[in-house]
Amino acid sequence: MLRRFRLRGEDAVRGSLVLTRRDSAASPDLWPVNAYGVADTTAICPSQPLVQELVIEECRRAAASYSWASLELVALGFAGPRGDFFESICFCSACRYGYGAVDGILETVARERVEHPSLNTMLLWRRSVQYGLLQQIREAVGVPLWLRTAASLRYTGDMSSLTFEEARGLVDACTVSGGDVERLAALPRPMPIYGVGMPEHEMFAGHIVAEAE
Ligand SMILES: [Zn+2]
Asked: How far, in Å, is the centroid of ligand 1 from the Cα of 154?
């Protein structure tokens, strides 16, 4: 889904593209699958090579469709219904391959919803998937990119869990649409950060993003 928006007080038209959160009824092979084998039909799993190809192509097309001042990438990450962390741990074949030796224990951990060191292995791998995909999009797209992120290790839903630091060099700005502003404000910010529908705060780069069709 491609939307357009402007910054308050600015005329430039910016684009915003939702990547992995969508009605994916036509592509059941691409659904994320939870620890009970139940698919999430409202998303596609970013670790799958076909999903990455699809997303990169959509970014390429969206970027070329208008002279955007920038293109924001939304939902570059692992979804999980209702933002539930344990539900977001995907067991599609590509994710299982990525988990390697901790695959089996992770399945138990996700079912029992308990803390375990295997979660750290999973989260690190997840970030490498998001980083790799962002890198490929950067190479494929000529317009300035913005990233919607929560800058929080476990974040699920419509935001990436890459930090501002990790996104440095790949995107020109980050947007945040929720979370603890004080915690985010304490993080290093190597680029402008914009708030989407959040209270004005000194950490945001002087503007609130107003989304519009
Ligand atoms: Zn998966």
From this structure: 15
Q: How much distance in Å is there from the Cα of 67 to the middle of ligand 1?
A: 34
Query: Which tens digit of pLDDT belongs to each residue from 67-90?
Result: 999 999 999 999 888 889 999 999
User: pLDDT tens digit string along 14-38?
Assistant: 999 999 998 877 788 999 999 999 9
Query: How far away, in angstroms, is 138 Cα from ligand 1 center?
Result: 22
CA 110–ligand 1 middle distance (angstroms): 14
pTM of the model: 0.95
Per domain, the residue ranges of the chain are 2-212
Question: How far are the Cα atoms of 108, 126, 177, 210 from residue 101, in angstroms, in the given order?
Answer: 13, 15, 35, 45
59 C-alpha to center of ligand 1: Å? Answer: 20
Judge contact between 23 and 30, C-beta under 8 A: no
In this structure, what DSSP letter does residue 116 have?
A: -
